[in-house]
């Protein structure tokens, strides 16, 4: 958003040098001069240039990400799901805070709907509004469906899709595309992250697996996966490291960040392929954390052996014969 280029008349008035103002100036502390408070989340962000009355540019104190306009919901979502350096206590606080938004948002949407006076498709059906708890369950199922099936969010506003929902249950008021891809998605993300975090914190003998690849958009994607003794797999972190050199020392730092967040006493092994930089990074971690086993991925090893076997002339002839049978 563009910054203001002119000073309003009230801002141009020189403040009176009262004893209260003198005391505030002498104390060196910023005094809030009225208006709506910025919100508790701002203690985790640096307030930059003013962009409009009561609105400021923001910068995260933990990862230095910036916003042209710091909105409280967006800043809370950043701490809950997107900041890689947020302290654990702050992370837990905002995961729970964002995860609790859904009930409040649904109440507001119902109030807005009741006060618009506009005729909707539900007016043509003999139906009543669904209980709030059931609406929440449907909304959660809906956002999971769109995310896991890779469906465009704009479909939720397609007339035929709306027609389908009304035929299934005319009392259900579907969310807008913005609400689905914004508040509902962030809320569900926090709910899932909270469950994963709770499960991991109650486990021992975890295994940390990592791998990297280049995406179709030429991003250098690295994933860090936690495996539990009960064979559950959790994608704990996904990073784009395109702008960094993938040295063993750099990768060791990224691995250590994950280990420290989870707790070194909970991790028993680290697994990866046998690329030179990753192999050395595993060795660095094992040296610093002696209880963590340095393990080469056996599946990757077998895959390399199989590739060498099928390249042999005997295997090539055998495959050709079977191919045309």
Automatic annotation (TrEMBL):
Main location class: nucleus
Gene Ontology CC: nucleus
Transmembrane segments: none
Pfam families assigned: DUF659 (PF04937), zf-BED (PF02892)
Record flagged with keyword Isomerase: no
Coiled-coil region(s): none
Domain BED-type as annotated: residue spans: 41-83
Location relative to the cell: Nucleus
UniProt keywords, alphabetically: Metal-binding, Nucleus, Transcription, Transcription regulation, Zinc, Zinc-finger
MF terms (GO), sorted A to Z: DNA binding; zinc ion binding
PANTHER family in UniProt: ZINC FINGER BED DOMAIN-CONTAINING PROTEIN 39 (PTHR46481:SF10), ZINC FINGER BED DOMAIN-CONTAINING PROTEIN 4 (PTHR46481)
Record's protein name: Zinc finger bed domain-containing protein 1-like
Organism for this UniProt entry: Rhizophagus irregularis (strain DAOM 197198w) (Glomus intraradices)
């Amino acid at each position: 958003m563009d910054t203001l280029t002119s000073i309003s008349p009230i801002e141009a008035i020189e403040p009176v040098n009262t004893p209260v103002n003198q005391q505030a100036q002498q104390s060196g502390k910023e005094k809030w001069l009225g208006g709506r408070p910025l919100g508790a989340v701002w203690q985790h962000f640096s307030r930059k240039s003013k962009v409009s009355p009561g609105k400021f540019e923001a910068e995260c104190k933990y990862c230095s990400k910036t916003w042209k306009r710091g909105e409280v919901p967006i800043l809370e979502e950043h701490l809950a799901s997107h900041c890689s350096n947020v302290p654990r206590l702050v992370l837990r606080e905002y995961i729970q805070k964002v995860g609790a938004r859904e009930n409040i948002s649904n109440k507001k949407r119902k109030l807005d709907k009741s006060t618009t006076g506009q005729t909707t498709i539900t007016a043509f059906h003999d139906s009543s509004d669904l209980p709030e708890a059931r609406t929440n369950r449907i909304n959660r199922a809906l956002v999971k469906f769109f995310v896991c099936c890779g469906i465009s969010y704009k479909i939720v506003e397609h007339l035929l899709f709306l027609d389908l929902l009304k035929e299934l249950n005319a009392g259900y008021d579907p969310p807008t595309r913005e609400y689905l891809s914004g508040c509902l998605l962030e809320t569900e993300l926090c709910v899932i992250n909270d469950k994963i975090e709770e499960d991991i914190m109650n486990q021992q003998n975890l295994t940390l697996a990592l791998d990297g690849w280049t995406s179709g958009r030429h991003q250098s994607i690295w994933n860090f996966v936690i495996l539990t003794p009960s064979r559950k797999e959790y994608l704990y972190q996904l990073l784009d490291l395109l702008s960094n050199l993938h040295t063993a020392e750099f990768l060791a730092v990224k691995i250590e960040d994950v280990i420290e967040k989870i707790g070194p006493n909970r991790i028993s092994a680290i697994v990866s392929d046998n690329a030179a930089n990753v192999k050395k990074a595993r060795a660095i971690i094992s040296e610093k954390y002696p209880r963590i086993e340095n393990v080469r991925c056996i599946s990757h090893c077998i895959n390399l052996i199989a590739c060498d076997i099928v390249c042999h002339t005997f295997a090539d002839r055998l495959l050709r014969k079977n191919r045309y049978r």
